[in-house]
């Protein structure tokens, strides 16, 4: 379903922080194409193609994921997907909206997630 395509770019924090953010989104978008895993990377990306059913992601962690340091997250995709992702991250973490930009069929939103 094209209404759920979403790209998430994460900077700040370590690989565990990036994975915590992605796991929070799995509950809504299903599993990403690839889980962030490069310890040396300073920017990590995960893409959700909407192919998996919402709620298909694992819920192996605690109810509230934890971050070790602030993480900047850029959400890019359809307006519906960006809105759903922002709402999901706002419930899972302390989130500060850092701005948004909209195009014809795509939207971008930046959030600062705090521990």
Unreliable sequence segments: 54-62
- Figure out the total of helices: 2
Calculate the mean pLDDT score and round it.
88
Q: What class, by secondary structure content?
A: alpha+beta
Termini separation comes to: 33 Å
Percentage of residues in DSSP E strands = 25-35%
- What is the number of beta strands? 5
| Biggest sheet: strand arrangement | 2-1-3-5-4
Helix-strand topology string: EHEEHEE
Largest sheet: 5 strands, antiparallel
How would you characterize this protein structure?
The termini are far apart. The protein is globular, with a radius of gyration of 13 Å. The protein has 2 helices and 5 strands. It is of the alpha+beta class and 115 residues long. Helix 1 (15-29) crosses helix 2. The model is unreliable at 54-62 (pLDDT under 50). A hairpin with a 4-residue loop joins strand 4 and strand 5 (107-114). A 5-stranded antiparallel sheet has the order 2-1-3-5-4, covered by helices on one side.
Overview in brief:
The chain has 115 residues and is of the alpha+beta class. It has helices at 15-29, 79-92, and strands spanning 6-11, 43-48, 71-77, 94-102, 107-114.
Considering the chains and any ligands shown, give keywords for the structure.
115 residues, alpha+beta, 2 helices
Topology (elements, then pairings):
Layout lengths: L5 E6 L3 H15 L13 E6 L22 E7 L1 H14 L1 E9 L4 E8 L1
Antiparallel strand pairs: 1-2, 1-3, 3-5, 4-5
